[in-house]
């Protein structure tokens, strides 16, 4: 994708899972717990729900853009509601969110070099933020477990009051926080949801990373840059700083 060169970039808004957290080590076991909970302990149904949510129960490959890859607890609850027999829809949402929170506190693993990358960009004068379709509680638990909670100046989640990706609200909240024009900011993420949020918010640069479930074929048409992981980000941003 070609685009006009943005003004000098002064802030970076990161996605969480698949970008600064290792999606596979963190979320494969959590997804399985969610499916088993929604299935009421029925193992055969849990396998079907995993597949329905985009998680292959045999290979543990998670489909690009699927609810398990990029959705919220409510997205998954809507998908599983017709099979849930142990309470109300609100109980299902609450249960999934609790598994996200507790699972993140147990299994979250940072992408290699993630903290150093954010610290390097901060030292270069950029404001670093994080936006996730996880809840505030889940975000806090998983970032804390991975040693990344304190490294971001701004953090926002799907239940922070700004909407969820791919809506632009979280990105615009970051712009408000920084006091910078959106075209001076960049989003870095592993999903179409991240890049679409950035486009709708008018961000100056959209960077995709291939460290999560997102496929290059899906991401490249929406991205200004595609990188293997955030480890390559400081070099990629050097000409924009």
Q: Any overview of this molecule?
A:
The structure is a single chain. Helix 1 crosses helix 2 (43-52), helix 1 (23-38) packs antiparallel against helix 5 (89-107) and helix 5 runs parallel beside helix 7 (136-146). The chain has a six-stranded parallel β-sheet with strand order 3-2-1-4-5-6. The protein is built from eleven helices and six strands. The protein has helices spanning 23-38, 43-52, 67-70, 73-80, 89-107, 114-123, 136-146, 169-178, 192-201, 216-219, 233-237, and strands spanning 11-14, 127-131, 154-156, 185-189, 205-209, 225-227. Strand 2 (127-131), helix 7 and strand 3 form a beta-alpha-beta unit. It is elongated, with a radius of gyration of 17 Å. By secondary structure, the protein is α/β, with parallel strands linked by helices. It has two domains: 11-22 and 109-240, HAD superfamily/HAD-like (Rossmann fold, 3-Layer(aba) Sandwich), CATH 3.40.50.1000; 24-107, no CATH class.
């Amino acid at each position: 994708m070609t685009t006009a060169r943005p003004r000098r970039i002064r802030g970076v808004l990161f996605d969480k899972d698949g970008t600064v957290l290792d999606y596979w080590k963190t979320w494969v076991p959590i997804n399985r717990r969610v499916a088993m909970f929604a299935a009421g302990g029925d193992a055969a149904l849990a396998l079907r729900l995993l597949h329905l949510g985009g998680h292959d129960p045999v290979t543990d490959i998670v489909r690009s853009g699927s609810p398990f890859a990029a959705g919220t607890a409510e997205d998954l609850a809507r998908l599983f509601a017709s099979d849930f027999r142990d309470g109300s829809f609100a109980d299902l949402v609450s249960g999934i969110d609790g598994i996200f929170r507790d699972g993140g506190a147990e299994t979250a693993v940072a992408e290699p070099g993630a903290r150093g990358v954010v610290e390097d960009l901060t030292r270069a004068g950029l404001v670093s933020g994080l936006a996730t379709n996880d809840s505030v509680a889940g975000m806090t638990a998983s970032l804390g477990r991975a040693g990344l909670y304190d490294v971001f100046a701004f953090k926002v989640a799907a239940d922070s009051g700004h909407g969820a990706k791919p809506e632009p609200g979280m990105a615009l909240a970051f712009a408000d926080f920084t006091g910078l024009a959106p075209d001076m900011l960049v989003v870095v993420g592993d999903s179409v949801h991240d890049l679409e949020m950035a486009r709708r918010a008018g961000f100056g640069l959209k960077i995709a990373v291939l460290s999560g479930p997102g496929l290059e074929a899906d991401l490249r048409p929406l991205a200004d840059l595609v990188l293997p992981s955030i480890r390559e980000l400081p070099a990629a941003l050097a000409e924009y700083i």
